[in-house]
């Protein structure tokens, strides 16, 4: 059996060839833009010709360059509102001092903490249902303790009076 197409030797494109193809596509796109804008082509402005030949400034052009659309894509401009376009930012463009967007979980966690703090403040002020129930229970316990303390005091006084009466009787009986 002869080998299929997958067994053949593969040919790889070198990075230099890829760069050359990209440069050619960019230059072609620039020429088309110049023809659309001014109608003069690349011969009208020598600065533009120099810029198109410079490979050092190709980094700036990569952001502006868009691939040529196939078929009816060029005719119909469709924008998907759900599609998020990834844009790369340079370090100089980053704003580290600005407000940071929080994730949903972080926002919910912060809201929980704030709600808990509000509840604790209201609880300490005695405005929540639980605080009112606790205060009522504490008032009942205080009354019970006061009554118990009053009864103990009365019992102690009664014992003292009984002891004093016993001593008086004893002293009276000894005096006779």
From TrEMBL:
Q: Where is this region: Disordered?
A: 1-112, 146-176
The residue ranges flagged as biased composition, category Acidic residues, are 55-64
**Pfam families listed in its UniProt record:** PP28
Domain Casein kinase substrate phosphoprotein PP28 intervals: 80-157
Question: Could you tell me where the Basic and acidic residues compositional bias lies?
Answer: 45-54, 97-112, 146-162
List membrane-spanning regions.
Answer: none
Q: In its UniProt entry, what is this protein called? A: Casein kinase substrate phosphoprotein PP28 domain-containing protein
Q: Which organism is it from?
A: Chloebia gouldiae
């Amino acid at each position: 059996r002869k080998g299929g197409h997958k067994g053949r030797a593969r040919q790889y494109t070198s990075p230099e060839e890829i760069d050359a193809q990209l440069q050619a596509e960019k230059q072609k796109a620039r020429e088309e833009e110049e023809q659309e804008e001014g109608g003069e082509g690349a011969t009208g402005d020598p600065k533009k010709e120099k810029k198109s030949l410079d490979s050092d400034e190709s980094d700036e052009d990569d952001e502006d360059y868009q691939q040529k659309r196939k078929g009816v894509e060029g005719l119909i401009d469709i924008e998907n509102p759900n599609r998020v376009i990834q844009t790369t930012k340079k370090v100089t463009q980053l704003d580290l001092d600005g407000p940071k967007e929080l994730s949903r979980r972080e926002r919910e966690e912060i809201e929980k903490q704030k709600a808990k703090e509000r509840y604790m403040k209201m609880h300490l002020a005695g405005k929540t249902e639980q605080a009112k129930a606790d205060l009522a229970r504490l008032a009942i316990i205080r009354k019970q303790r006061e009554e118990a303390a009053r009864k103990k005091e009365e019992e102690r006084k009664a014992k003292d009076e009984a002891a004093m009466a016993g001593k008086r009787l004893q002293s009276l009986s000894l005096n006779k």
